[in-house]
Design a protein that fits this description.
By secondary structure, the chain is mainly alpha-helical. Helices cover about 95% and strands about 0% of the residues. The protein is built from one helix and no strands. The chain has one helix at about 1-30. The longest helix has 28 residues, at about 1-30.
């Protein structure tokens, strides 16, 4: 069970990072 808890923040961080990339792309193309 502890391993699942370890993966949770990882996916959250990936989601945050992906959103940042989208934001940067938006600035690039605007």
């Amino acid at each position: 069970p502890s391993q699942i808890t370890k993966f949770k923040p990882s996916s959250h961080f990936k989601n945050k990072f992906g959103r940042q990339l989208q934001f940067m792309n938006h600035l690039k193309y605007s």
